[in-house]
Each structure stands twice: as structure tokens, then as C-alpha cells.
Amino acid sequence: MIPKKIIVIGAGPGGLTSAMLLASKGYEVDVFEKQGFVGGRTSGFTLDEFTFDLGPTFLSMPYILEEIFELAGRKLEDYIELREIDPMYELIFSDLSFFPTRNQVEMKEQIEQLFPGNGEGISVL
């Protein structure tokens, strides 16, 4: 039997995930991307002396990647080594810097210090 051919438009996280899952089911998959690079939101750009991350938020939730790879019959750790980074990143405002962390107690304290009255908006487990 000749495998069905599928075209995926976009090589961002969603397109690459779709292509991987479809290929694991035996489909012949071609991925097309308008940019000169793959990654979509997991990429970044530089403007003057500043570098901007386009937001690979799913990388802060490795269980999502593990599930995707498992659905495709693969193991994430066979392809990449994840390392926790803390703080996760830095947000720079004109008058302050904010460092998001997975430590919920520390995060709440930082929010309250930088943005008084807003610490209640985060729940601590």
C-alpha cells in the first residue's frame, strides 16, 4: 500500500509536532516553512543590541514534549537533554528587571516586591 502524502504548512512547534505524529503513523509528510529557519515561536530575533525570545513556553513544561514523543513511539531523552534554568528568563522594563522562577514562594515574593499588591494573584502550592 502506498502511504498517504500530507503537507504541513509551518515549521513551528505545532507544525513540527503534527508532522512528527503523522509520520509516526506511517504517513509521508512534507513540511513547508516561509521563514528561512524552523522553530516559529521557539526562535528569536535581534534588534539593535537587544535579543528577543519569541516565547517557547512549552519548553517550560517538559511533560508536554515527553507526551508528544511518547505518542510518536519515541523517547524525548534520546534526542535532547533538558536542563532546568532558574531563573527561567529575564523581563526588562524601563525601571526594573523581573526574573520568573518555578519556585512559587520566591515568585510570589518577587511579584509583591516589584508590583506591590499583586502578589495575591499567584497561588502557592
Automatic annotation (TrEMBL):
It holds the Pfam family NAD_binding_8. This is Phytoene dehydrogenase. It comes from Halalkalibacter wakoensis JCM 9140.
